[in-house]
């Protein structure tokens, strides 16, 4: 147990979760159709009941929860109030919470997003957030520093799971120090470089800044070779695309290759569609299947 106020790097916390619970991450995506299936109204009350039941089923079975903020935002301020409660419940239950917010802007504005989602004591405090470096990796530098100071994590969109992303993410850079790299490859290398530049890099198995790689994505075609061992610290990889979008636990090693050890396998609809009575078993079964894949 660490002393109060001690900052434990996000990468270290993630490593501990992998060791205790494995790599499955439950996605909290309260689609209107799922609320209906769960017998809940498409309202803030419905979100609250749905969210509380998902957290109850997930706690002690998995160590990571990824709320998709869009489904709360569509209910306005009432949705955000529910989200605040659910974030606190999940964190109190000991889960690492990744807020899937995909924020990005000029640096001074991204800093404010970082404060909203990662500052200790913020009503929306999570353990990590997803972020876009479309305005340049430099635009998120202050957030990376603030996250590090608070023991928080970031997942930078690199090679996402949606097929229509490839035209942009596979485009080859003409200028910059990473000319010749794809956009996805340059972002990935930039994040790896950031983790390596931290003072404690050599002693860490995992860095605190990761990337988003879709489990449905051909990483090699996106300019990210998967047969070359990345340097330490290892790269956390938030990987949506398992379950509903088609990827299976058995695909993990072939898809991610040298990055497999850092993969957080997110599944949302495939688990949530088991309904309130089936979700606990669905999570436990899937957690076992990822466990069988190994590290
Ligand atoms: O590349 C990306 C980035 C994020 N997502 C998000 O993950 C979940 C996936 O949900 P499923 O129901 O398991 O398909 C959802 O919140 C997406 O917004 C992604 O799919 N791909």
TrEMBL record:
Its EC number is 4.1.1.23. Keywords: Decarboxylase, Lyase, Pyrimidine biosynthesis. PROSITE patterns: OMPDECASE. The keyword Lyase applies. It comes from the Bacteria. The keyword Lipoprotein does not apply. It is an enzyme of class 4 (lyase). Pathway: Pyrimidine metabolism; UMP biosynthesis via de novo pathway; UMP from orotate: step 2/2. Residues 23-283 form the Orotidine 5'-phosphate decarboxylase domain. It catalyses: orotidine 5'-phosphate + H(+) = UMP + CO2. InterPro entries: Aldolase_TIM (IPR013785), OMPdecase_AS (IPR018089), OMPdecase_type-2 (IPR011995), OMPdeCOase_dom (IPR001754), RibuloseP-bd_barrel (IPR011060). Belongs to the OMP decarboxylase family. Type 2 subfamily. PANTHER family: OROTIDINE 5'-PHOSPHATE DECARBOXYLASE. This is Orotidine-5'-phosphate decarboxylase. The lineage of its organism: Bacteria, Bacillati, Actinomycetota, Actinomycetes, Micrococcales.
């Amino acid at each position: 147990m660490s002393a109060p106020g001690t900052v434990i790097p996000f990468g270290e916390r993630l490593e501990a979760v992998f060791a205790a619970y494995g790599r499955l991450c439950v996605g909290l995506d309260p689609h209107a159709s799922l609320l209906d299936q769960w017998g809940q109204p498409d309202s803030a009350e419905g979100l609250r009941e749905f969210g509380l039941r998902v957290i109850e089923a997930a706690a002690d079975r998995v160590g990571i929860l990824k709320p998709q903020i869009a489904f709360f935002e569509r209910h306005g301020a009432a949705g955000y109030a529910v989200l605040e409660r659910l974030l606190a419940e999940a964190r109190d239950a000991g889960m690492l919470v990744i807020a899937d917010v995909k924020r990005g802007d000029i640096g001074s504005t991204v800093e404010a997003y970082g404060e909203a989602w990662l500052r200790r004591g913020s009503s929306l405090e999570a353990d990590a957030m997803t972020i876009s470096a479309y305005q340049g990796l430099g635009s998120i530098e202050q957030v990376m520093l603030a996250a590090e100071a608070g023991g928080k994590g970031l997942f930078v969109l690199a090679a996402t799971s949606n097929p229509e992303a490839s035209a942009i993410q596979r485009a080859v850079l003409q200028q910059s120090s990473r000319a010749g790299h794809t956009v996805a490859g340059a972002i990935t290398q930039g994040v790896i470089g950031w983790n390596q530049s931290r003072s404690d890099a050599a002693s860490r198995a995992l860095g605190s800044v990761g990337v988003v790689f879709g489990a449905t994505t051909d990483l090699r075609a996106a300019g990210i070779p998967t047969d070359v061992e990345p340097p330490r610290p290892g790269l956390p990889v938030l990987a949506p695309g398992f379950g509903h979008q088609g990827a299976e636990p058995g695909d993990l090693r072939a898809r991610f290759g040298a990055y497999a050890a850092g993969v957080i396998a997110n599944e949302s609809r495939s688990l949530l569609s088991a309904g309130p009575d089936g979700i606990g078993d669905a999570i436990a079964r899937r957690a076992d299947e990822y466990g069988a894949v190994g590290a």
